[in-house]
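Hi R.,

Here's the input for the zinc ion complex you asked about:
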Amino acid sequence: MTSSYIPEKTKARIRTAFQNRCAYCLSSQRYVYGPFEIEHIIPLFLGGSNNEDNLCLACRLCNSYKGVQTTGVDPVSKQTISLFNPRAQVWQDHFCWSKEGTSVPGKTAIGRATVEAIQLNNELAVQVRPSWVAVGWHPPEELG
Ligand SMILES: [Zn+2]
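And here is the predicted structure with zinc ion in place:
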């Protein structure tokens, strides 16, 4: 069985690579009490590894909603497709912010399936984001 042990140096590199933001909802660790977690994009028990290209940073909500999912259903086409891969794909290609900056509509089938699977517009997120928008914390600038 593969160990889920990830060295602290690797965790630090992942936090830096994702600019201390959740790879899925783009929340900043700066505004969230719960420490962001290192997430296996492909879970270990499904053959994923501890290599950095399989690891991303995720807030607790996104990580818990994602769980072991690797696929989701696009609500438009009803097809089951792979979820957004934050290491292989660009967030802005698959998601955008609503005009008010408080919800995430998927732009593509991958985006839509991921929004549903990870519940990017869950009740808590949609309640908190307007406050972040009001003080200029959200939506985030384009990630470099
Ligand atoms: Zn998140």
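One thing worth noting: The mean pLDDT is 94.

Cheers,
M.
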